[in-house]
Amino acid sequence: MTTVLIIVGVVVLAAIAGWLLLRGRATGGAGLKRRFGPEYDRVLARHQGDTKLAEQELEERVKRHGSISERPLSDEARERYTARWTRVQERFVDAPEDAVTEAGDLLDELSRERGFPEAGSVEDRAEALSVHHAAQVDAYRRVHTARDGAGGTEDLRQALVEAHALFDALLGKRTAGPAGRDRATDMRKQHHAKGSVTS
After folding, report:
1. What Å distances lie between residue 152 and 59, 102, 149, 168, CA to CA?
2. With contact defined as beta carbons under 8 Å apart, do 187 and 89 qualify?
3. How confident is the model at residue 25 (pLDDT cuts 50, 70, 90)?
């Protein structure tokens, strides 16, 4: 009788394990695609369409960085970061390159304070951010690329606008809506107005 119960238990456990394995395979790709969004497509393209390799990389990211628990910010810290970001945007009018450099530094500092790794390359930090802020992580790469001298003033402006969405996400705010777009328009108008006066 005991032997029969043991055999039945083993069969049941094997069936459950098999079901979980099949379920994981069936939903793993879809789950990763939902979680990473455009980042999934970016990684897939880098692996030349090899879904298996792309998903292995993303699963590895989740293993390495999924346990990061973003530390809360105090109200004072949130106000301080918000004031600094406002100054970055205002500085863009006179010194676009410097403003974007400051924006990159500010994102690095804010992400470290929230608990993301501080060591490593820009891409290492981007990978950690992608696990928690996949929709905005490309802005992190873009602001760091732009600050290294890639592109003109409009590229710098667009990088700063996109980085604002990541900044808001790291602050715990919703992504900027129409008000954020209005600020981006103001930045463009002010820059062009300054250019027309000095040229």
Report:
1. 36, 17, 8, 25
2. yes
3. very low
Label residues 91-114 b or e (16+ Cβ within 10 Å = b): ebbeebeebbbbbbebbbebbebb
User: What digits encode the pLDDT tens for the residues 26-60?
Assistant: 346 788 999 999 999 999 999 999 999 999 999 99
Question: Interior CA angle at 36 toward 144 and 116, to 5°?
Answer: 50
**0.90 exceeded by the pTM?**
no
Q: Which two tokens stand for residue 163?
A: 């980085």
Q: Which residues does 134 contact at the CB level (< 8 Å), separation at least 6?
A: 35, 36, 37, 38, 39, 40
d(CA 104, CA 109): 9
